[in-house]
């Protein structure tokens, strides 16, 4: 599992870690039933504090994506539903567009243009 963080992202690190794990689940890199590496290992790989990773894992558990089992670690329960996954990605897209000075209307126009090209 390869997770990366954007050091220029203004969001708190625990949110970035949760987004990275959620994306890995959405993409199928981590499937339901798979166990995640220990929080300490994830923290080391990402260069963040283990408590940051634990907070992210708890947030994902609260969303119903992960399951904590004593003695067995953390495993993936299910994939996020498609609408929620797209909502998260759209929020990320709008955040990134704002960093480039683009508005939501600019993003909508871009998506409209792309969909017409693809049709």
TrEMBL record:
Q: Which organism is it from?
A: Microbispora bryophytorum
Q: Which GO MF terms does the UniProt record name?
A: DNA binding; DNA-binding transcription factor activity
Q: Tell me which UniProt keywords the record has, alphabetically.
A: DNA-binding, Pyridoxal phosphate, Transcription, Transcription regulation
Which residues does the UniProt record annotate as the domain HTH gntR-type? 11-79
Asked whether the keyword Transcription is assigned, the reply is: yes
Q: Does the keyword DNA-binding feature in the UniProt annotation? A: yes
Which SUPFAM superfamilies does this chain map to? Winged helix' DNA-binding domain
Which InterPro entries does the entry link to?
HTH_trans_reg/aminotransferase, Tscrpt_reg_HTH_GntR, WH-like_DNA-bd_sf, WH_DNA-bd_sf
Specify the protein name.
Answer: GntR family transcriptional regulator
């Amino acid at each position: 599992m390869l997770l990366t963080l954007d050091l220029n992202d203004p969001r708190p690190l625990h949110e970035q870690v949760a987004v990275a794990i959620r994306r890995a689940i959405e993409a199928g890199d981590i499937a339901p039933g798979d166990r995640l590496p220990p929080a300490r290992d994830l923290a080391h790989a990402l260069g963040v504090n283990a408590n940051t990773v634990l907070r992210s894992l708890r947030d994902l558990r609260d969303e119903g994506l992960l399951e904590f089992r004593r003695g067995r670690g953390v495993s993936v329960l299910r994939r996020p539903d498609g609408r929620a996954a797209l909502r998260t990605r759209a929020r990320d897209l709008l955040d990134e567009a704002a960093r480039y000075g683009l508005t939501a209307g600019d993003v909508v126009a871009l998506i409209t243009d792309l969909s017409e090209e693809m049709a």
